[in-house]
Write a structure and sequence with these properties.
2 copies of one chain form a homodimer.
Chain A: H1 16-29, H2 42-49, H3 53-65, E1 69-72, E2 76-79, H4 98-105, H5 124-131, E3 141-142, H6 155-165, H7 183-197, E4 206-209, H8 212-223, E5 229-233, H9 237-245, E6 250-254, H10 262-268, E7 272-275, H11 289-300, E8 306-310, E9 335-340, E10 352-355, H12 358-367, H13 377-388, H14 391-414, E11 421-424, E12 431-436, H15 442-451, E13 454-455, E14 457-458, E15 484-488, H16 494-507
Parallel strand pairs in A: 3-13, 5-6, 5-7, 7-8, 8-9
Antiparallel strand pairs in A: 1-2, 4-10, 9-10, 11-12, 12-15, 14-15
Helix pairs in contact in A: 1-3, 2-3, 6-13, 7-13, 8-9, 8-12, 10-11, 14-16
Chain lengths: 508, 508
Amino acid sequence: MYDMTIRLQTDRGISLYEQIYGHIKGEIRDGKLLAGERLPSTRSLAEYLQVARSTVESAYGQLMDEGYIEPRPYKGYFVCPMEELAGLEGMQGAFDDGERRQDGAGRMFREEGRRSGFPESLGSSQDTRSRGVRDGSPAVIDFSPVEIDMSGFPFSVWKKITRNILTDANSDLFARGEAQGDLGLRQTICRYLHSSRGVDCGPEQIIIGAGNDYLLLMLEKILGRHVPVAMENPTYIRSYQIFRSFAYPVVALDMEQGGMQPGRLREVGAKVAYVMPSHQFPTGTVMPVGRRMELLRWASGEEDRYLIEDDYDSEFRFRGKPIPALQSLDRQGKVIYIGTFSKSIAPAIRVSFMVLPLPLLKVYKRDCAFYSCTVSRIDQRILDEFIRDGYFERHLNKMRKFYRDKHELLLEKLVPLEKRFTISGENAGLHLLLRTKENVPEGELLAAAAGAGVRVYGMSEYGIGASGEGEDAGSIGKGGKPGAVLLGFGGLSLEQIREGVERLEKAW
Amino acid sequence: MYDMTIRLQTDRGISLYEQIYGHIKGEIRDGKLLAGERLPSTRSLAEYLQVARSTVESAYGQLMDEGYIEPRPYKGYFVCPMEELAGLEGMQGAFDDGERRQDGAGRMFREEGRRSGFPESLGSSQDTRSRGVRDGSPAVIDFSPVEIDMSGFPFSVWKKITRNILTDANSDLFARGEAQGDLGLRQTICRYLHSSRGVDCGPEQIIIGAGNDYLLLMLEKILGRHVPVAMENPTYIRSYQIFRSFAYPVVALDMEQGGMQPGRLREVGAKVAYVMPSHQFPTGTVMPVGRRMELLRWASGEEDRYLIEDDYDSEFRFRGKPIPALQSLDRQGKVIYIGTFSKSIAPAIRVSFMVLPLPLLKVYKRDCAFYSCTVSRIDQRILDEFIRDGYFERHLNKMRKFYRDKHELLLEKLVPLEKRFTISGENAGLHLLLRTKENVPEGELLAAAAGAGVRVYGMSEYGIGASGEGEDAGSIGKGGKPGAVLLGFGGLSLEQIREGVERLEKAW
């Protein structure tokens, strides 16, 4: 058992429970307390530290809340597995085994509300929302890959910060802000990106905007017209739709060994490649460092070649060493880094950010700086304090635990189906992939599930060329081909996951 | 003296003071109590109604807060002049004397933070904010036409609404919303537009977006590429910059008799005309109904002709009958109506809205509906309640009074300068136009003012072709031509206005 030596101070105005909480948290983060290790019982630690037992209980409670430790019946308190925390130290160069991790060693989670192949216009967000976990006992169990769990959202904290900010003292917040977003938030995001993603930039390179879609609209103004874009296939369909709405020629390159091949990029004459290296959607593939370097070399080959790194869910990774952003390897100013808080906090928090390489920043300042910022300054300030005061990190840790529990239950429940389906994509955040071994067409799987009151999502929806996109580059499991379906679990309760999989077993 | 007969009810759960307040407000709104009329003293009304004097005082206090009545020393309480209130009844067809109003009979006010010829990138918003009224006694007095008065902002109300909305019960607010904006807010805006602007539309035609700039970006996707746009000259330069960033050919048509001439539109082959009929910026011209009908006829001439009505400051009009929106006259579905809350509430409230005619709505749904809404659902809900609960109307009435006082003081202080300057643009919201009678170039006026520690704004900034826009269609008072300057007063205190004009008198 770990020997807990805490130097409690009574003269620092910090409550004893906070000191205990802080100490244990530090030990976990420094790796001195390892995943699965047992903590002393509240009673014994209280005696040892000469404090009231309730004091230790509060500290443990806080640590449980934040997903650092978990109770096991009759056993005590144990450290939760989480090698990656939001605030990372010394993770640069931690790049060793992308391949292995890709083979499923690492489980990744995502809660990106926007990662849907179904445009909201098709009503899917409406459907999933109205049928999602929030309305109690839904007739249909919807394994939507776009729903997230809001039950963990720290409303009271958000309220408190908001209340403090909405004072007459801050009346200037209601005046116009800077076009790129307020400096304070840009500095905070800059620090966060550096420590958690290894992103190397200054606040002046950051553009804050109301959602990735908007940032891509800005990017169109910066990159110019008719830029040939290459996308991974399958991919995040909304970005595809957006590039199409720019009248950009879009080429779909099938995923091969962890990503698109630079050779193909040259063949098709792409100028911009849109990639999700840390965790490709929907396949969940992690791009190995070798492929990353190849892509960077390709981009350096011509002045107007760029890589758009959509780092949409880097926060939701559980096991294995953290994977620095592609941008952190970029020495030539070739990577446009895009991130969002839509999934790490909530889809309704319409705050995304883009890190521009210096050449493009120059173009932005010349041609786009008159576009006023699309995020209210109040929301910017709330988010800024939410991050700076450590609430963001706590929220992330808490959500990791929520989603890990759901993920593990789903995997466990799916075991009986493994005879007839290949289950993959554990890397792929809040959903898994099931691929039939018996050439059952996707359509039949969806229909059978629907018949049993379960909604699952066909992989073909995410293939460019699929869902009536007017192209036909490598759509997947489409038509008669052996089907693959996505099972999302973010918005479902444990009970719904249990019930849903049982329905599927009967149906399939 | 007006005979005040109020049927006070003690059984309706409405406090006596609220009943008195509501009754008097109603009388004013119904025109039974007229501008300048004297109210009974609190003492006499209290005796008459058999209530405590403090009850009447609270009612009067509330009415003063909202700008319905004002106290005059040693005289008592008087009804404020305000023929137009936010919630208008029977104003359709109130269209009679656009011309007369245009000749200055009507004073209009605006507080549009965005109506600047200076992109934020040029630092003007920063400068004006840091030098504005908020930081006490500024060295430079900045007659910025873009600053607004935030001292009247109802922070406590905004906080209260926010607090009530941020409850776990509303956790669904943190999930994705509808692409066009949430139905509730669209319905509220729809009602508001109908009653206050005569706009005829359904909520399904409304697109909510984070600012006008963003809505224009959407419009580019809807209208398509290379659409020849005609703009009034001088105009709102940011819209001009935005159309240019679309690679749209932009033609500047000089203002003639209340607007651009449809004949010229045909000559230049414009497909879209961007107009501000209720109150052109920066000239403050009101487009007469005849010209409006001509423009609508022009638009009906071809299927792909449209009018963009930027109704940016319709809320801030004081005298004369209200002017319905151009959209209210449109029977052919030719007007794209754009409005914003940036100025009527605060620039930081990044909520604008666009009413699409049905043909364009169809295009939007087909080509753009996958763009997720740029306004957070929380902000949408806060705004929705702010309007529905009547706070928006109260705020507007209050601000009208604030700005009217500043406007009147400025006019009064400017009298001595009338020998050497033509003062115009009383229609033009939160600023006035001064035009030299002695052919003093604009540059000299600006320099002399700056020397005296006053910042004024050259009219040439608003001329298309000016400020290095690379064109040269009718820039105004530019270079050596007789100068005209804008004096904005929205963000200045009465004391600053007094001091500022005195400095100008010495300088000029």
